[in-house]
Amino acid sequence: METGIYIHLPFCHRKCLYCDFLSFKPDEKTVDDYTETLLKEIKGLSDLIKTRRVPSVYIGGGTPSYVHQSVIKRIMECVYENYDIMQDAEITIEVNPASADINKLRAYKGAGVNRLSIGLQSADNRELRLLGRLHDYEDFVKTFEDARLAGFNNISADLMTAIPSQTMESLKSSIDKLTALGPEHISAYSLMICEGTPFEKIYGEASDGMSGMEHRPAGKLPDEDTERQMYYLVRNELAKAGYHRYEISNFARPGFESRHNTSYWERKEYLGFGLGSASYLNGERYSNIKDMKEYVEYYGKNYDGKNAMVPYKDELMVLTQRNKMEENIFLGLRMDRGIKLSDFHEEFGCGLMDVFGNTVSKYCESGHLSLQGGVLRLTDKGVDVSNAVFSDFLN
Ligand code: SF4
After folding, report:
1. Those residues with Cβ within 8 angstroms of residue 343's Cβ, 6 or more apart along the chain or in another chain
2. pLDDT value at position 103?
3. Which distant-in-sequence residues (6+ apart) come within 8 Å of 337 by Cβ?
4. Ligand 1 pocket member 19 (CB < 6 A)
5. Which of 65, 182, 190 has the alpha carbon at shortest distance from 121?
6. C-alpha Rg value of the chain to the nearest Å
C-alpha cells in the first residue's frame, strides 16, 4: 500500500492580506523548537506506515523557503531514514520568490527535492501589492531562472484570478508572461475572501469595499461574471500553450500532473506532520494540534526518542461507507478523467447509479454531468457550478 507524506512549515515573513493558512512570523527560538519537535514527530510516528511505501512528499506552508536550507536538509534526512520513500517519489517544496535564492534551491535539490511549487499569483506588480505579497514579478523570474540553474525540471507556479483591480487584459498578460517562462505545471485558483483576514474587512459582505484599506489603494473585486470569464481565459490560454486541465484548477504539460495532489483527489491515504497538518489514515481524517505551545509540548517534550508516538487527532472523522462514496463523487469529479463506474463498483461492491442514480440523472439532463462509456464527468457547464453539483450528492 502507498501513503503520501505532507510536512507543514507554518512560517512567513508577513501575512498576505487574503491568507487564512496557518502561518505567522516566528522568532529564532520558535523556528528551532519547531524544527526539533517536527523531527521527533516524523520519527516517532513512523510505525504508523512502516509497511507502506511513500510515493510523494510535499513540504508546504506557510513559506518553507523562509527557514534556512539546513532545516529542509534535516527534515528530508529524517524522512529518508524513517520511511520507505519510493525511488521515483515526487518530492515537492513550496517556494516564495521573496525568500528563495540559488543556494537554497541547490540545497533542496541536494536533499532529494525534485519539484518546486512557486507562488507567483500575478505578473502585475500592482496586483501583487494589493494582495500584500512580498515579492514582485521580477523576483519570480529570478527564482524561476535560479531553479532551472539548480537543475529543477519540474516546476509548478500558482496563478490567481479575481484579484482586486485585475482585468481580463492584466490576467492575459500574466498568463502570457508565465507560459513564456514554461513551467511544467500551473495551479490557477480564484481569490477567496476568508473569514478573519484583512480582506474580509475590506471586501466582506458587510463592507463598503473601502474601509480597512488604510494606506493601500483599494482595488475593486471583479464581479461574478468577470470571474467566470477569467476562468475560461485561463483554461483556453493554457490549453493553447500546451497545458491540459486535469483537475478543475490544475493544468499540466503531459506527464507533469502533480502526483501528490492527485492522490488527494483519488482519496489515497496520507500522513501529515507539523502544526495543523491534516491526515487521512486507516479510514480516519483528522488534524494535528494548531497551537504552537501545545504542539511542542505534545510531540517534543513527551517523546523518549525510542518508542512509537500516538498521533494527536483533532477534528477526528471516522469515515462511514456512505462518507467514502460521497468523497469518491466530489473528489473524483474534480478530475478531468472523471469516475469510472466499474471502479466505483469494485471499491464499494454496489453500483454508483444504484446509490446516486437520481442525482446523476438530474444533472445529466441539465447538462452539468455527462455519462458516456461508463465514465461520469463534470461538463464545462458543470465546472461553473461545481460546488452546487457536489453538495447535491451529500446526504
Ligand atoms: S506567503 Fe502564503 S502562507 Fe504566507 S501569508 Fe502569504 S499566502 Fe499565506
Report:
1. none
2. 97
3. 246, 375, 377
4. yes
5. 190
6. 21
Around Cβ 223, how many Cβ atoms within 10 Å? 10
DSSP state at residue 309:
P
Q: Cα of 117 to ligand 1 centre, how many Å?
A: 13
Beta-carbon contacts of residue 369 (< 8 Å; ≥ 6 apart): 333, 360, 363, 376, 377, 378, 379, 382, 389
- In this structure, are residues 118 and 154 in contact, taking their beta carbons and an 8 Å threshold? no
301 — alpha (psi -120 to 50), left (phi > 0) or beta?
Answer: alpha
pLDDT attached to residue 214: 46
Euclidean distance between CA atoms 55 and 347, whole angstroms: 21
- Residue 278 to residue 301: CA distance in whole angstroms: 22
Count of alpha carbons within 13 angstroms of residue 4, beta-carbon side: 26
Question: CA 349, CA 355: separation in Å to the nearest integer?
Answer: 11
Of the candidates 50, 47, 31, which has an alpha carbon nearest to the alpha carbon of residue 303? 47
CA of 239 to the centre of ligand 1 (A): 28
DSSP 365: H
Cα 15 to middle of ligand 1, angstroms: 6
For residue 62, which amino acid is it? G
The count of C-alpha atoms lying within 13 angstroms of the C-alpha of 301, restricted to the half-sphere facing its C-beta, is 7
Q: Which three cell numbers stand for residue 317?
A: 472523522
For residue 87, is pLDDT > 60?
yes
Average pLDDT across the chain, whole number = 94
The C-alpha angle 375, 318, 327, rounded to 5 degrees, equals 20
Amino acid at 196: G
pLDDT attached to residue 206: 54
End-to-end CA distance of the chain: 30
pTM for the full predicted model = 0.95
Q: What is the pLDDT of residues 133-162, one digit of tens each?
A: 999 999 999 999 999 999 999 999 999 999
Inter-residue contact 97 to 135 (CB < 8 Å): yes
Domain 321-391 in CATH 1.10.10: yes
Q: Is the CB of 21 under 6 A from ligand 1?
A: yes
Q: Is CATH 3.20.20.70 the classification given to domain 4-265?
A: yes
pLDDT on residue 219: 76
Residue boundaries of the structural domains of the chain: 4-265, 321-391
CA of 21 to the centre of ligand 1 (A): 7
Give the C-alpha separation, 78 to 40, whole Å. 9
